[in-house]
Structure formats: structure tokens, C-alpha cells
Amino acid sequence: MSESRGKIIIRGKIWKYGDNVNTDVIFPGKYTYTISDPVEMGKHALEELDPEFAKRVKKGDVIVAGANFGSGSSRDQAPLSIKYAGVGAVIAESFARIFFRNAINIGLPLIINKEVARIAKAGDEIEIDFGLGKILYKDEVFVFPPFPEKILEILESGGLIQYTRKRLHIED
Fold this sequence. Notes:
Elements: E1 9-16, H1 23-26, H2 38-42, H3 53-56, E2 62-65, H4 77-85, E3 89-92, H5 97-106, E4 110-112, H6 114-119, E5 125-129, E6 134-137, E7 140-143, H7 149-157, H8 160-168
Parallel strand pairs: 1-2, 2-3, 3-4
Antiparallel strand pairs: 1-5, 5-6, 6-7
């Protein structure tokens, strides 16, 4: 995929999980009030569901899951832990609404695509072009509605706070 509306193209290995992966499984509740550093959060991502995940995930890898990914409490530690573990995107049959918004706000791209969620296999390679709304998996192309320009800008900036700082010319 050489042509893209945006700059976000993700290539990585698939990590496959089922339905109803909730926020307490994504980022264990026992750390909610003890870990505040996002890098440290990433070291505990999905540890109760897949103890090897945070140790073996590589930058740009993609989580593919079933329905209702991110259900449970609205803590932003869940998407933060996934992002800081190195995950480039999450594809699922569906997402909990507040998880979806929290993920976009922190710059973690999410895609709803039931077909890919059903056929993808753990360990396979996948490529996602967010500007064109295309997923390349095993020589097949799957489409999803391309993200609106503003959402692409938020994701390219690394999240809503960084996007706002950039727009207002605020230095860190």
C-alpha cells in the first residue's frame, strides 16, 4: 500500500483474543492506584489474560479481538497500557463506547471489522492503512470507513492533548 491519505500505516504481528476482554483484564485493577507512569503500565498490559504479552509484544503489533473489547470501567489506564506496550492498533468486532473514545483520546487507533476479527490468526502479519481505510491480511484487502481528517490528526499527534497543544502552539 503505497498511497495513503494520512501518514498512519501499521504493520505487525497479530495478537488474537476473544469476546468481552474488559478493562480489568487489559490493565489489572490491582495496579489502578499504584502505577501512574504509562511506560510502567505497558509492562502489565493484558498480564492476567496473557502473561507473556507485555514481554513479547513488538512495536506496531496489532490486537485482534471479538465483540465488546474494552468493556467494564472507563479507566484510561487500559488503552494507555496497550499503547505503551507497543501495540499499533486494535481491530475488534465491536468496542465498548467509552473505551473507544479513551483510546482515540490517547492516540491508540481502533477499527471495527467483524470479518478480520473472525478470520485473523495469532502470529500472522497484518497491515493497516488508516488514511485509505484498508487492512491487508493474507493477500486480501478488507475495507473500513477511513477515519475523518480530525481523528487522523489526533492519532498522528499521539492523542488529543498533544493535538491540542500543537494547535494552540503550546510547548511542553
